[in-house]
């Protein structure tokens, strides 16, 4: 089945290993396994049998996850190996060749390339930087003049980090209702203060994982929250791939969720100090500008230099060891993805090197 | 994307929990996590950072896996969350709508239903019980008169447990060469004494996992061995789903592989004692017959009673607590899948209950 190379992921794979200053990694500093084990106050890890576990996922874990939503119980939740797989399972379950899909750009490539690979017709509505990375409402309305099967929203968006204001979310839900369109909201960057868009709509679906703010990408644990019938259909489909996430990952996921408040505080502290470092740097760097997102770990930095983003990123990494994913991976030039996941001193040093590059390259 | 319910997996999900005598489970008695941890003599688990790890999989683990084959190195290996996902990744990567696929029946449903879901044309060649669960060679030859894109073989077969004799394997490879057809061999039940069919053909692919004989289904760790170009293409596709299996699963998989000899001996002992119990029981039960496979954990038991297999399995479990997957899940009536994974006393008690059911039901 033809499928485009996933530019962002391949850029990460090809460049991450040689980075000295990784200013683009979307996960807060990962925990050590031993740190997570130390949070297992009930000694759940001492009693794990390495069979398939509960196929739909440990009910205790699904219970904890359902509490992240206003209107979910465990039958509204199923698990996957990360949020990408969760998204893929939803897309495969809902779409047939020829279906219309609406998503947004710059955005995460999976939302366009995967439905296209299935023969769907994808409209990627532009997010305008001058509107704070929001769509044009007239264009949005027009996109719903024809039948729509699925809308895919990334909230906060990757790479811009921005969130649709409540009024725009409401408008989007009204438009979805017109066609009973499914609304898949990838909320992998969601923090607790943000409501889930999926809660406001009967055909709303939320996907997320423990990878980003929880610092546990190594668990590869994601989930899907949605209407019970859809969750059943996805569970049938999971028999053809992962079958289950297994009792070890489920138990470690449960331990993480039991300690969510602590992990979230840790993330908030890392993110806010990194944001502060970026804000201070921006005051000194007039060749760059940023629409600072209100939450999450990613943002989309604009640079004022006459060089395509992929070339800039290659040069910058080669000469200064500073690693960004270029805007070209998100279909938007003269930007790089800048994240808020590292210690402030590290961020400052990396950003200063970027400034030095911009000065010396003279573009 | 339309996809049939996976009958075997759903039967397992629906019935396994209430089984008293599970005589159909394909995995030898699972290890406890603590047993696996105790095998970590190099203390690899003490130093795991919970990030994405090496995206294509820990090279040390891929090295250990490559040693299971005659002609593989680490670039011929990629990882997946279990063998089903490994198969699915291969199928998705190789096939386009309209492609012809050859597989065998009774067999594992994924090999027919998943390509069919993609719009492929699947020929499932019959395995004849009277030929020792082998295909008719004339029918096999005829199936290759038209172009073939992919052949999927399960070796040992699930559910029959049988293995193609070497001469038939060679013939199959010759037929594949005619069309440069890919040959995917699901070797999840392979034991070390069996050569890998994939080693004998340039377009050969092997999939497997640690679930069955290693007793580690809970790791959900499978792999694909194939030509390097194909592995690259699959790695691109993995960016859209699992991304990586993660450093924790990779490390535990490495520990298991480092202790493979011990784990294999453990499996051999469990399997041979269970086979012995089945053989002894068969001498006393004239309503049942079995082509005893030479290796692996599964077999396909024929019963002489006038009742469809699903109904028999429902009644048997309800009345006697004995759990089998019915032949109907594999498209072959009047059989049940019987596995060699439990202690002999447990096997004997379950089989005697089955005999009692057959006597009392009077069918």
Structure summarized in a few sentences:
Chain A has 363 residues and is an alpha/beta fold. Helices cover 39% and strands 17% of the residues of chain A. In chain A, the strands form 3 sheets. In chain A, strands 2-9-8-7-6-3-4-5 form an 8-stranded mixed sheet, sandwiched between helices.
Commentary on this structure:
- The structure is a homodimer of 363-residue chains.
- Chain A has 363 residues and is α/β, with parallel strands linked by helices.
- Chain A is 39% helix and 17% strand.
- The first copy, chain A, contains twelve helices and 14 strands.
- Chain A has helices at residues 7-15, 33-38, 59-66, 83-94, 110-117, 137-143, 166-179, 228-238, 247-258, 260-284, 309-320, 344-361; strands at residues 21-22, 77-80, 100-105, 121-128, 134-135, 150-154, 182-186, 204-209, 222-225, 288-290, 298-303, 322-323, 325-326, 335-339.
- In chain A, the strands form three sheets. Chain A has an eight-stranded mixed beta sheet, sandwiched between helices.
- In chain A, helix 4 (83-94) packs parallel to helix 5 (110-117).
- The interface between A and B is large, with 60 and 60 residues.
């Amino acid at each position: 089945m033809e499928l485009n190379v996933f530019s962002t992921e391949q850029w990460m794979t090809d460049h991450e290993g040689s980075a000295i200053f990784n200013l683009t990694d979307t996960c807060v500093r990962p925990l050590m396994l031993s740190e997570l084990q130390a949070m297992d106050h009930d000694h759940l890890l001492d009693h794990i049998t390495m069979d398939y576990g509960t196929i739909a996922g440990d009910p205790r874990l699904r219970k904890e996850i359902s509490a992240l939503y206003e209107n979910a119980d465990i039958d509204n939740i199923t698990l996957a190996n990360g949020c990408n797989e969760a998204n893929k399972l939803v897309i495969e379950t809902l779409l047939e060749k020829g279906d219309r899909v609406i998503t947004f750009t710059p955005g995460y490539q999976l939302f366009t390339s995967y439905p296209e690979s299935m023969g769907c017709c994808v409209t990627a509505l532009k997010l305008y930087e001058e509107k704070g990375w929001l769509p044009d409402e007239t264009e949005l309305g027009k996109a719903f003049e024809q039948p729509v099967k699925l809308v895919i929203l990334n909230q906060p968006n990757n790479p811009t980090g921005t969130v649709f204001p409540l009024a725009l979310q409401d408008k989007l839900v009204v438009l979805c209702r017109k066609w009973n369109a499914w609304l898949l909201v990838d909320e992998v960057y969601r923090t607790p203060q943000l409501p889930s868009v999926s809660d406001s709509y009967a055909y709303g679906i939320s996907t997320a994982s423990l990878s980003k703010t929880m610092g546990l990408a190594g668990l590869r644990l994601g989930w899907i929250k949605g209407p019970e019938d859809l969750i059943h259909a996805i569970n049938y489909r999971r028999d053809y791939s992962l079958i289950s996430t297994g009792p070890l990952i489920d138990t470690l996921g449960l331990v993480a969720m039991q300690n969510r408040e602590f992990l979230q505080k840790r993330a908030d502290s890392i993110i806010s100090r990194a944001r502060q470092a970026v804000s201070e740097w921006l005051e000194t760097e007039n060749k760059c500008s940023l629409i600072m997102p209100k939450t999450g770990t990613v943002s989309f930095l604009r640079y004022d230099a006459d060089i395509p983003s992929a070339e800039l990123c290659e040069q910058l990494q080669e000469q200064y060891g500073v690693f960004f994913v270029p805007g070209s991976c998100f279909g938007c030039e003269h930007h790089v993805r800048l994240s808020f996941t590292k210690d402030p001193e590290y961020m400052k040093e990396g950003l200063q090197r970027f400034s030095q590059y911009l000065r010396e390259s003279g573009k």
